[in-house]
Design a protein that fits this description.
single chain, 28 helices, 82% helix
C-alpha cells in the first residue's frame, strides 16, 4: 500500500466514525438497539455499542433489510476498532444479504483491499461497478462520483495484482470522470481527481514511465498544497503523502538530493499529525523513505535512526494486524540489513536478515504473490553478506535459493523480476570468481548479460549501470583466458554506457572505479589484438581516470591508483611505449605505494626503464 493510501485511510477512519454515528442515530424506532448503540458510540464506548449491535443482529433473522444494516454497522465498528477479520465477516454478510446497497459492497471491497486480499477485492469492486452502471442507465451521470471512486480503487487493486493494463484502463476512466466533475465543481471534486492521479503516478512509476509519473505527482502536489492551505485538518496529511510520491519520482531517476527536502518536509508533517495519537503507517513509510535517501546520499549514520524508528512502528502495526503489515516489516528489516552491510556491521546485518528470513519463509508458502519477492530479496542480501564474510559455501546456498525463486517470478510480466534474475546470476558468478572456478563464473555472467540485454523500454534505464558492470566483469574473464576479440567489444560497449550515465543532468557521478577498470581492460584487449596505438591511448585514459577517483566512488580502495599504474605499465611495455614515460609512471607508483610488494615492483620497473 502506498503512503497516500495510508494517509487517506487515516482520514477515512474519522469519516467512517461520523457516518456510522449518523447511520445509527437515523435508525427507526423499531431498531431501538441500534439507536442505543449509536448513543454509546458517540460516547466512545465501542465495546458496549458492539454488544448491542450483536443483540440486534441475533433478533433480526427474519428481516433482511434490518439484518443487513446492522451487519454492516457491526462490520464498520470492528473496522474502527482495527479488527479487520471480524469486520470482513460482517461486511460480507451485509453485501450478501443486500447486494443492491452498493455502499455495503464498496466498503467490503475496500477492507479486502486493505488486508491484501486483492483477488477477492477485485471481484467485489467489479460487481459494484457493474451494478452502478446499470443503475446509472435510468439517470445518466447520477452515480458518476461513486463509479469513479470504485474505478480508482479497482485500478489500485489491479496494480497490486500486477494487472497493469487493466489497472491503467480503470484509472484512466476514473480520471476522465473526475475531470468532468471537477470542471463543474473544482472545490468538491479536486481531491478525488488528485487521488486518481496519485494512483496513476504510482502505476507509471512501477512500469518505469518516470516522466509520466513525475508529471502526475507534480499535479497532485499542486492540488493538495492548495487544499491543505484551505483545510489543513483534512488535507495536510495527504499533502505530505503527495510529497512522498514526488520524491519517489525524483529518486527513480537517481536524483536523491532533490528528493531529500521533500522527504524532510513530509516527515515534519507526519510527526505533527501523529502527536497525541501514537505513530502510524504514514510516519513509518516516510521515515523508511528518508533513510533510503540518506543511504544513497552517503551520510550512512543519518540513515540508521530513521530506519530504526520506522522498524519500530512496523513492528507495532504488524503485531496488531499481521496480514496487512508484515510485508512492510520484512522489507524494512532488509533495508536495515543492507545499511549495516554498508557500514561494516555484519553482526547487526545478520540479525536483521535472519529475522526477515524466519518470518518470510513460512508465509511464502501460503501467499507467494506477496512474500516470494520479499523472500528472494532476503536470501540475496544474505548471500551478499556471506560473501563479504568470506563464507562462500553459505553465500552460494542462499543465492541459489534466491535464483530459484526469481526464476519463478520472472515468468510473470513485470520486467523488474527479470532484472533481479539477471543480477542474481551475476552475484553467483562473483562467488565462483572467489573460488577460481572461472569457467562456471563465465557461464553465469554470460547468462546475466543475455537477460539484462533483453530489457527494453523505460525499464532498461533502471539497469544500465548494472549491465555495464556485468560487461566489465565478463570482459575481464575473457581477457584472463586470452579471448581478446570477445572481450574488446564488451569493454567498448561498457565505456559508451558509462559516458552516457555520467553525462546525464543530475546523473550518477560515482562510477570512477568501474570506468577506470573498464578502460584498463580495454587496453589489455588492444595489446592482445596487436593494436599498439589503441593500447597506448586507452592505457593513458585509464591512468587519467584512476587519478580522478574519489574516496566516495563505489569500490574505492586506497591503493587502487598504484595498482592501475603497475597494471598499465605492463600494457605500455608490451605496446613498446617510450621508456621515459614508463619510468615516470614507475616513479609515481613508487612514491604512492603503501605496501612492500607494490613498492618493490615499482622500483624494479623504474630500475629497468629509467636507465635505457
Amino acid at each position: 500500500m502506498k503512503i497516500q493510501d495510508a494517509l487517506k485511510e487515516a482520514d477515512a477512519w474519522r469519516d467512517k466514525y461520523i457516518e456510522l454515528t449518523k447511520r445509527l442515530a437515523e435508525a427507526g424506532t423499531e431498531m431501538g438497539l441500534s439507536l442505543k448503540a449509536g448513543e454509546l458510540l458517540r460516547q466512545g464506548k465501542f465495546d458496549e455499542a458492539g454488544k448491542l449491535l450483536d443483540q440486534a443482529i441475533n433478533s433480526e433473522e427474519d428481516d433482511l433489510d434490518r439484518l443487513a444494516a446492522d451487519q454492516y454497522s457491526r462490520g464498520v465498528l470492528y473496522g474502527l476498532q482495527f479488527q479487520p477479520d471480524k469486520s470482513l465477516e460482517h461486511l460480507e454478510k451485509a453485501f450478501r444479504y443486500r447486494p443492491d446497497d452498493l455502499s455495503y459492497g464498496h466498503d467490503y471491497a475496500f477492507m479486502l483491499q486493505h488486508e491484501n486480499r486483492f483477488t477477492e477485492a477485485e471481484e467485489v469492486y467489479e460487481e459494484v461497478i457493474r451494478r452502478l452502471r446499470l443503475t446509472d442507465r435510468d439517470s445518466p451521470g447520477k452515480h458518476d462520483e461513486r463509479i469513479a471512486a470504485a474505478l480508482s480503487n479497482l485500478g489500485a487493486t489491479c496494480h497490486s495484482l500486477r494487472q497493469y493494463e487493466k489497472a491503467e484502463e480503470a484509472l484512466s476512466e476514473a480520471s476522465q470522470i473526475y475531470s468532468r466533475l471537477a470542471e463543474r465543481d473544482p472545490k468538491t471534486y479536486a481531491g478525488g481527481l488528485a487521488m486518481v492521479q496519485t494512483n496513476l503516478g504510482n502505476l507509471y512509476a512501477d512500469t518505469a514511465r518516470y516522466e509520466l509519473s513525475e508529471k502526475a505527482f507534480h499535479e497532485v502536489v499542486d492540488v493538495y498544497r492548495k487544499l491543505a492551505a484551505e483545510n489543513p485538518a483534512s488535507y495536510r496529511g495527504i499533502y505530505g503523502g503527495a510529497l512522498i510520491g514526488l520524491a519517489y519520482s525524483y529518486m527513480n531517476r537517481g536524483d536523491f538530493s532533490d528528493a531529500r527536502p521533500l522527504l524532510e518536509e513530509s516527515l515534519a508533517i507526519m510527526r505533527s499529525l501523529q502527536r497525541g495519537r501514537g505513530p502510524g503507517e504514514g510516519l513509518a513509510r516516510v521515515l523508511g523513505d528518508l533513510g533510503d535517501a540518506y543511504m544513497e546520499l552517503r551520510p550512512l549514520p543519518d540513515a540508521e535512526p530513521a530506519l530504526q524508528e520506522s522498524l519500530g512502528i512496523w513492528r507495532e502495526l504488524a503485531a496488531a494486524d499481521p496480514q496487512a503489515y508484515s510485508p512492510s516489516l520484512y522489507r524494512m528489516l532488509i533495508d536495515l540489513g543492507e545499511l549495516y552491510q554498508q557500514m561494516g556491521r555484519y553482526g547487526d546485518a545478520d540479525r536483521a536478515l535472519a529475522e526477515a528470513l524466519t518470518g518470510c519463509r513460512p508465509r511464502e508458502k501460503l501467499d507467494p504473490r506477496v512474500y516470494r519477492p520479499i523472500l528472494a530479496s532476503t536470501l540475496e542480501h544474505i548471500g551478499q553478506l556471506r560473501t563479504l564474510e568470506g563464507n562462500f559455501d553459505a553465500a552460494e546456498k542462499a543465492l541459489q535459493e534466491s535464483l530459484a525463486l526469481r526464476q519463478q517470478l520472472a515468468l510473470e510480466p513485470p520486467p523488474h523480476y527479470k532484472i533481479s534474475l539477471g543480477c542474481t546470476y551475476e552475484e553467483l558468478g562473483d562467488i565462483y570468481i572467489q573460488r577460481s572456478q572461472l569457467e562456471r563464473a563465465t557461464s553465469l555472467y554470460e547468462t546475466s548479460i543475455s537477460i539484462l540485454r533483453e530489457i527494453r523500454g523505460p525499464e532498461a534505464a533502471l539497469v544500465r549501470g548494472r549491465y555495464a558492470l556485468g560487461l566489465n566483469k565478463l570482459a575481464g574473464l575473457y581477457i584472463a583466458s586470452k579471448r581478446w576479440s570477445e572481450a574488446r567489444p564488451l569493454s567498448v560497449e561498457a565505456d559508451g554506457i558509462y559516458k552516457e550515465l555520467t553525462s546525464l543532468p543530475g546523473g550518477p557521478s560515482d562510477y570512477g572505479v568501474e570506468v577506470t577498470v573498464n578502460l584498463a581492460q580495454l587496453a589489455h584487449s588492444d595489446v592482445g589484438l596487436g593494436r599498439a596505438s589503441d593500447a597506448k591511448e586507452d592505457s593513458q585514459k585509464a591512468i587519467t581516470s584512476a587519478r580522478q577517483i574519489k574516496p566516495t566512488d563505489l569500490g574505492y580502495k586506497p591503493d587502487l591508483l598504484v595498482a592501475i599504474l603497475l597494471d598499465q605499465m605492463a600494457v605500455l611495455i608490451a605496446a613498446n611505449e617510450d621508456a621515459s614515460k614508463i619510468c615516470a609512471l614507475a616513479n609515481e607508483a613508487a612514491s604512492l605505494a603503501s605496501n612492500t610488494s607494490a613498492l618493490d615492483t615499482a622500483k624494479k620497473i623504474a630500475s629497468t626503464t629509467c636507465h635505457r
